[in-house]
Amino acid sequence: MNVYFLVEGKRCERKLYPSWLAYAVPHLRRVSALSQVVADNYFLVSGEGYPSILGDHLPNAIKDVETVGVFDYLVVVLDAEEQSVAERRGEVQRAVQRSRTRLRSARLEILVQNRCLETWLLGNRRMFVRQAGSQELRRYIAHYDVHVHDPEQMPAFQGFSTHAQFHLAYLKAIFGERSMVYSKNNPGHAADASYFEQLRHRVQECPGHLATFASFVSLCERLVPPVRQPRCWV
């Protein structure tokens, strides 16, 4: 099993996804060059943001996959931002269709982070502080309590031009209550196995919450090789 990951983010995804994959799909080993791909490897590259991930990097990724010829999956990861998940998926599918190189040898998987990666990270209930000390965080919780409600459904908040900007500020405020720091360059505790497990527990405990993160978990489960049953000799 070999997987090619094309992620939108320039910073955070390049740090979080390798950490999460190490926990969720430990048999996959990351390689730094396409020439190193043999078996049970994955290659991860950034699309350097939106829209360059679709206009420039996706066609190059398809060309890489077809040239190397040993990848089972091409996984494209990008934010929904102000669009719906369906709209963003449609953009990716149309970009694949426009590519001069046809994707034939690998299966396409589109992971849309709704609204962004920080939206997923807001789903960790263990990080949440119900009795917030900061006025900023109390305002955010009064607007939408992510401990109770699905972070992916959180409406916009006055003073922020996008959902993603608000979700990032909300997450930073939660980390701040724990005397921790979160940033795009340094996701900190969010890269730990325990954080990933709390997000996975959220989707198990609350069906329907973090639906796009649940899609990532489902993909990881499909990448895990089946357990071989021991032979019974008569």
The 3D shape can be described as: globular
SS elements, strand count:
5
What is the succession of H and E elements?
Answer: EHEEHEHEHHHHH
* Rg: 19 Å
Which blocks of ≥5 consecutive residues have pLDDT under 50? none
The SS-based structural class is alpha/beta
Tell me the CATH topology of the largest domain. Rossmann fold
List the strand order in the largest sheet.
2-3-1-4-5
Structure description:
With 234 residues, the chain is an alpha/beta fold. It folds into 2 domains: 2-116 and 213-223, Rossmann fold (3-Layer(aba) Sandwich), CATH 3.40.50; 119-206, no CATH class. It is 42% helix and 12% strand. It has a 5-stranded parallel sheet with strand order 2-3-1-4-5, sandwiched between helices. α3 (85-98) links the parallel β4 (73-79) and β5. α2 packs across α3. The longest helix has 17 residues, at 52-68. It starts with a strand and ends in an 11-residue tail after the last helix. The model has no long low-confidence stretch (mean pLDDT 95).
Please write out the topology.
Elements: E1 2-7, H1 12-24, E2 29-30, E3 41-46, H2 52-68, E4 73-79, H3 85-98, E5 107-113, H4 117-121, H5 135-143, H6 163-177, H7 193-205, H8 211-223
Parallel strand pairs: 1-3, 1-4, 2-3, 4-5
Helix pairs in contact: 2-3
Task: Name some characteristics of this structure.
alpha/beta, 42% helix, 12% strand, Rossmann fold, five-stranded parallel beta sheet, 234 residues, 8 helices
